Amino acid sequence: MLLLKFYSPYLSYELSPKIRNIHLFIPMKGPEIMSKYVGESELAVRNIFSRARTCSPCIIFFDELLAELDGGDPRKGVYVIGATNRLDVIDRALLRSGRFGEILYVTLPNQDERGLILKTLSKNCSLDADVDLIAIARSKACENLSGADLKRMMAKAAMVAHRENCSKIKAVHFEKVLKKIKPSVTDKV
């Protein structure tokens, strides 16, 4: 199965929790496999697919990289997901049968999804007991924030807490950040 995700910029943090339950999730970015030496990029792609076949069922997630999808070896148990915010420039040959079979548009996260994203992002943070991530996610200030925006918000709240010599991030730190943070995604797609 092949799936191409089409989304607004900065939405890669909203991967479905169900997708994350696959045995192996291999995220790949272009610079990680591109090489100036002849044959090295192809070898890297072959190695990724070999690893994926060994660990199937698994997902290979190519973020802003569309590699060769045709191959002699079957992809049994290997799922390829591509992502782009520029569907208009994708070569239509990549969308033909046997390559990306589905195209999904990923929207901005809703209140519940923002809450899940914030909970995930806060796992390694020390939050004060007064912080209600669900209430923050439901606030008007978070309404049009993407996963990347929420990550930036969490980092900025931690920075404010650090500057104030606080050992934990408090609700007031989020309030300060939310007054200044702006959505990175616009209505223009």
Automatic annotation (TrEMBL):
Recorded superkingdom: Eukaryota
Keywords: ATP-binding, Hydrolase, Nucleotide-binding
PROSITE patterns: AAA (PS00674)
Domain named AAA ATPase AAA+ lid: residues: 130-176
Domain named ATPase AAA-type core: residues: 25-65
InterPro entries, alphabetized: AAA_ATPase_domain, AAA_lid_3, ATPase_AAA_core, ATPase_AAA_CS, P-loop_NTPase
A GO term, aspect molecular function: ATP hydrolysis activity
Keyword check for Glycoprotein: no
Entry-linked Pfam families: AAA, AAA_lid_3
Family annotation (PANTHER family): AAA-FAMILY ATPASE, NUCLEAR VALOSIN-CONTAINING PROTEIN-LIKE
Family listed: Belongs to the AAA ATPase family.
Protein name in the entry: ATPase, AAA-type, core, P-loop containing nucleoside triphosphate hydrolase
Phylogenetic lineage: Eukaryota, Viridiplantae, Streptophyta, Embryophyta, Tracheophyta
